[in-house]
Design a protein that fits this description.
By secondary structure, the chain is of the alpha/beta class. It has one domain: Alpha/Beta hydrolase fold, catalytic domain (Rossmann fold), CATH 3.40.50. It has eleven helices and eight strands. Helix 2 crosses helix 11 and helix 8 runs parallel beside helix 9.
């Protein structure tokens, strides 16, 4: 499937630069409350805002689970986002917690830095799985600075210890979840593969399996799959959620997701610990992700609501 150059350019801009490094207005929520953390610095990584969403009546239901999410400035307040859309995380999370459909949890929202988002979110070691001729080509991606390993180090050694020390949360992998959309889906999946003892459950939403422009000839999607074949944790202690829509950029994803689903089956995952969903008519945007967020959170946290 091919789009016109104008449409594709707009889609790729949304993919690579969905938001600025920080918002000019204070983020507002309609349920629960937001706390902005003091600067958390990782050498070699651009500084970014980190916010924590706390549900109503926090901390009365401790220990809380923790959901780490990327593109944090897009989650709560459409009045501060680049495209006037949001995930509606505060409303959906509050509703599900109050209905006892999920285990009580907090959200750690890590902002992207738009200029560096692709390099921060690409699963860095997957580039090593490109065929040798592709790796040695003069394709710009081969010269791009990838910081996925450094970004995950930042989450695991800087952000998570701060959260564990200052909030009423559980510390173990069974308490620690990660989720994101598009490139955020790739880095979330990479986090579980690289740190299986830290993260137990991942939601990779509208995952951008091509890795770069979907029409590009560089076989990055195959390289990502090769990485997964060698690095997915064995079944038993982890759970995986995948989905995609069928419109705009998501229209590229069905055959790529089917190829990943085959890997999941080959690795021994089943319906008890893995779910892939297709949402007809959904596009590659926050409104679409918001409309199915309740299903995503129930998969991630519903089975642990009585922990």
């Amino acid at each position: 499937m091919r789009f016109s150059p104008t449409i594709l350019l707009g889609l790729l801009f949304a993919l690579i630069q969905p938001a600025s490094a920080s918002t000019s207005k204070e983020i507002q929520v309609s349920s629960g409350k937001i706390e902005t953390l003091p600067p958390l610095i990782q050498e070699g990584l651009s500084e970014r805002s980190v916010r924590v969403w706390l549900p109503n009546n926090y901390p009365t239901q401790q220990p809380y689970a923790v959901v780490y999410m990327h593109d944090g400035q897009m989650l709560f307040d459409k009045g501060t986002t680049w495209n006037g859309q949001e995930w509606g995380m505060d409303e959906t999370a509050s509703k599900l917690i109050s209905q006892e459909k999920v285990r009580p949890f907090i959200v750690v929202a890590i902002d992207n830095v738009s200029k560096f988002r692709h390099g921060d979110y690409f699963p860095q070691k997957a580039r090593d799985f490109l065929p040798s001729d592709a790796r040695q080509s003069k394709h710009p991606f081969n010269q791009a600075e990838l910081r996925g390993d450094l970004y995950l180090k930042y989450l695991v050694t800087t952000v998570k210890p701060y959260i564990d020390e200052h909030y009423a949360v559980g510390y173990g992998a069974d308490d620690t979840f990660i989720a994101g959309a598009s490139m955020g889906g790739l880095i979330s999946l990479y986090a579980v593969a690289e740190y299986p003892d830290i993260f137990s459950t991942v939601a990779a939403i509208s995952t951008h399996w091509p890795g770069i422009n979907p029409d590009d000839s560089l076989p990055l999607a195959e390289a990502i799959r090769a990485y997964l074949r060698e690095n997915l944790p064995k079944p038993g202690n982890h759970r995986f959620y995948f989905d995609h829509g069928t419109e705009t950029l998501d229209a590229y994803y069905p055959p790529l997701q089917l190829a990943v689903d085959q890997i999941m089956r080959q690795q021994g995952y089943s319906s008890s610990d893995w779910l892939t969903q297709v949402f007809e008519g959904h596009a590659h945007d926050e409104e679409s992700w918001s409309s199915r967020l309740d299903q995503i959170l129930i998969f991630m946290l519903g089975h642990q609501k009585n922990k």
